[in-house]
Specification:
heterodimer; A: about 425 residues; alpha/beta; 6-stranded parallel β-sheet; 3-stranded antiparallel β-sheet; 17 helices; about 35% helix; about 15% strand; elongated; B: about 400 residues
């Protein structure tokens, strides 16, 4: 048995909202992806299998539609909307990500669907939210990273701020949407009533700033970006350091909690001959305050950064990782996707899952379950649906006969 | 009358600390869960030492990060190394639906609070452990922060300029990604328990959860053998697509044309009407080829404008654009204001301070930030008396034994 197996989800989202339904599907729900006839525009998003575009070759589509069934419905036609309403009447969750107001204009807004199914949990995922002065702004991942806060903090200080090369903004929103949907569901069990959930990606990505988005209301200085680190009140703190064969992420910081790690690290590199004892014995707990107050000159911190870098550069990424495991240093290698997938850590946990794609004559390795559940492990039951793959099966469940289905297909409704 | 919050009947005993774990239970607190958060009276929660600080003044309660991750929870100080803390923990486990922890593996076992031990106290308990790399495997012992899990999961190598070293996403990136997976795992497990009576143990690797934010790049490797790397601000589908200079020091505006119509609107806005219908820029494919040329052109245009002015002008023309906002600008952003993103709470020692608001708007049972984050041990008396029903003698006795530090 899986955790959400009793529940049915109608997923009308475009490329912005696909992960939300997949999260519920991974947790066991029966998620029906609804696409326009001919297939969703998201199928045109790459990368593509063997770099050959095509609706059944989009790795983006495969990434975020696993474990869903798929049907096609033309919602521009009354007959298509009628079928959707019949499906919604028996659904537990409804997910959409269109421009605010569009679903209502189609007669498929929350108010309309709740009339026949008051228990429906209706989830809207948009860039800026359902209403407000920017609700109708044109958006993309980059626009939201700019609007929500992570962008200004990221990148080299002599170049424009930079985003994560793989779009992230709507994934944050989809995660928040899935949690909210399950919270509303929990309440529905008590009350019998559903509700409308409004998730805005701008707000969701603000949560990806380590709370620096709060600097102004707290009357604290703004943080500034610096390559692989952060600049705060004039102090440049690197978090990316060189290794002999690449780079590592290394938390070399101070204070009551982190200074302890730094002290341990300095003792080690001193023993290895990378610094003198006076440097080793600095007050690493109070060091940050000493720098901020000017008691310790920034030039001295620059000297220390150089000798720390000399140490990290003397070892390979894997040697440094080994030290981190053995000695509790706060460092990990900066890895490529290939190194991630081939890592002994993921392999020893059987993380990646092979999913069959019979149409392509092969199986593809996917990132595995997002958590390991002892009683109800997440299962990858099916690859992303082909265009209209489950039309017959799903429509039969609401009493559409084969003859009706053929008529609907002739008319282009499905 | 106010509706009962969605999770009003959910009780969580929370051993989590620093960032990723507490951020997850913060979400559930906003939806109404009662969360008793255990904090060590001696070992300070790292998050309490991190910027930004209330009034820019460090102090045990002043971290905006800590306060943002822990608003709405009850705080109790317990010395878990003290043998007499066990009876308190066990009583809290009997009270709770869910136990969460984010220590490095082994810590809970050392205290006797691992899942096998706790299910003997309460058979249907749901327990979740979250750490950087998971409970097993050669790197299970790695402790630290989300920047480390992000680096070892590929995020750093995928963020920055192709001709420079990796910049990495800002800060402890997986600590922002993983909490959603934590929270949804708990709610799904709770629904399963309600229907079946069965509790369970959840092992969350923050790295493994976060890799779902890189799936297309992972499949590009597992299906195509391509190892994607950082590409600055370029995009495979759209051009122009970039962050362009605005008037002033370190001021920027993001501009993207996702459709041919947006390009024509941008050309008009830039007063380049001659390029509007020029076939060399008419389609995305053509524009992608001339990406660098377009970037120069857009930068020339935005350079003369205030960032906010460029945003307003371009959005009015239907072009995707936004000033690159820092905290002050987001705090002043009319949309964030409209959504009530910044919420003032009354903190026991700081007075009025700010945290971020709930993650989603629920129409009938809206989430709420019900209180500020607790000081260490702020709710000892409340938890012991009202939740556990201890009498004054027992509380005094435990305090004398040093259980609360």
């Amino acid at each position: 048995m899986s955790m959400l197996s009793p529940y049915r989800v109608l997923d009308l989202s475009d490329e912005r909202g696909l992960l939300c339904g997949q999260l519920l599907a991974d947790l066991g729900a029966d998620v029906i992806k609804v696409e326009p006839p001919g297939g969703a525009p998201a199928r045109a998003i790459g990368p593509f299998l063997n770099d050959t575009p095509g609706p059944e070759r989009s790795l983006y589509w495969w990434s975020y539609n696993r474990n869903k069934r798929g049907i096609t419905l033309d919602l521009e036609r009354p007959a298509g909307r009628e079928l959707l309403k019949r499906l919604a009447a028996r659904a537990d969750f409804f997910i959409e990500s269109s421009t605010p107001g569009r679903m209502a204009a189609l007669g498929l807004g929350y108010a309309e669907l709740a009339k026949t199914n008051p228990a429906l949990v209706y989830v809207s995922i948009t860039a800026f939210g359902q209403d407000g002065p920017k609700a109708h702004y044109a958006d993309t991942d980059l626009i939201l990273m700019a609007a929500g806060g992570p962008l200004v903090l990221t990148g080299d200080d002599d170049r424009p701020p930079v985003r994560v090369s793989v779009p992230q903004a709507f994934l944050h929103a989809c995660g928040d949407a899935a949690v909210a949907a399950l919270a509303a569901h929990h309440e529905r069990v008590r009350s019998g009533s559903g509700q409308h959930i409004d998730v805005a990606a701008q707000a969701s990505v603000a949560m990806a700033t380590q709370s620096y988005v709060l600097a102004a209301p707290l009357k604290s200085p703004e943080a500034r970006r610096v390559s692989g680190g952060v600049k705060f009140a004039g102090l440049e703190i690197p978090l990316v350091w060189p290794a002999k064969d690449g780079y590592i992420a290394f938390t070399f910081l101070f204070g009551t909690a982190l200074g302890v790690f730094t002290r341990k690290f300095m003792e080690y590199i001193c023993a290895q001959g990378f610094c003198d004892e006076a440097t080793r014995d600095k007050n690493w707990i109070a060091y940050g305050e000493m720098l901020f107050s000017g008691k310790e000159p920034l030039s001295e911190f620059d000297r220390i950064k150089k000798l720390v870098a000399a140490f990290t550069s003397s070892l390979t990424k894997l040697e440094l990782l080994q030290l981190a495991v053995e000695r509790g240093f706060l460092m990990t290698p900066i890895t490529t996707i290939e190194e991630v997938i081939r890592s002994s850590q993921l392999q020893s946990r059987d993380y990646c899952q092979s999913v069959e794609h019979p149409e392509c004559g092969r199986a593809i390795l996917y990132p595995g379950p997002f958590a390991k559940f002892s009683a109800t492990p997440i299962q990858y039951r099916r690859r992303a649906p082909l265009v209209g793959e489950h039309n017959r099966e799903v429509l039969a469940e609401i009493g559409v006969t084969n003859a009706e289905l053929e008529r609907l297909a002739r008319e282009g409704v499905v | 009358m106010a509706q009962e919050l969605p999770l009003a009947d959910v009780k969580i005993l929370d051993f989590m600390w620093v960032m990723a774990g507490p951020a997850a239970t913060r979400i559930l607190a906003d939806y109404g869960a009662t969360i008793v958060r255990i904090e060590s009276p001696t070992r300070v929660d790292t998050a309490r030492t991190l910027q930004p600080f209330h009034d820019n003044t460090p102090g045990p309660d002043a971290s905006g990060l800590f306060d943002n991750c822990n608003a709405g929870k009850l705080g109790i100080s317990l010395d878990l190394g003290n043998p007499r803390s066990r009876e308190v923990v066990h009583d809290l486990v009997r009270w709770a639906d869910i136990v969460t922890e984010s220590f490095s593996p082994k810590a809970m076992r050392a205290w006797g609070f691992d899942y096998e031990s706790l299910r003997k106290v309460k058979a249907d308990i749901i327990m979740l452990s979250t750490c950087l790399m998971g409970q097993s495997g050669p790197l299970a012992r790695i402790a630290g922060f989300g920047n480390m899990a992000a680096a070892i999961s590929g995020f750093h190598n995928l963020t920055g300029w192709p001709d420079r070293k990796p910049a990495g996403p800002f800060g402890a990136y997986t600590d922002y990604v993983a909490p959603r997976f934590t929270a949804m795992s708990l709610l799904a497990a709770l629904d399963h328990r309600r229907r079946t009576g069965q509790g369970q143990y959840i092992d969350q690797s923050q790295a493994e959860s976060s890799l779902h934010f890189l799936t297309p790049a992972i499949l590009d490797y597992t299906a195509n053998g391509r190892i994607e790397s950082r590409v600055g601000n370029t995009d495979s589908r759209f051009a122009p697509h970039g962050v362009y200079p605005a008037r002033g020091d370190d001021r920027w505006v993001a501009v993207v044309c996702t459709t041919d119509a947006q390009w024509r609107a941008l050309a008009s806005a830039m007063k380049r009407d001659n390029l509007r219908d020029d076939p060399r820029y008419a389609t995305a494919a053509e524009r992608l080829v001339r990406r660098d040329e377009l970037d120069t052109m857009v930068a020339e245009f935005t350079r003369t404008l205030e960032a906010g002015e460029a945003e307003t002008m371009l959005q009015a023309a239907g072009v995707a654009a936004h000033q690159v906002q820092n905290s002050s600008e987001i705090f002043a952003d009319p949309q964030m204001h409209h959504r009530g993103h910044f919420v003032q709470v009354d903190h026991a020692t700081l007075g009025p301070t700010y945290v971020e608001g709930p993650r989603a708007k629920l129409s009938r049972t809206p989430a709420q930030v019900r209180s500020a984050a607790p000081s260490v041990g702020q709710h000892n008396q409340l938890v012991l008396e009202q939740i556990l029903g201890y009498d004054e003698n027992r509380i005094t006795d435990l305090a004398a034994a040093g259980v609360f530090g």
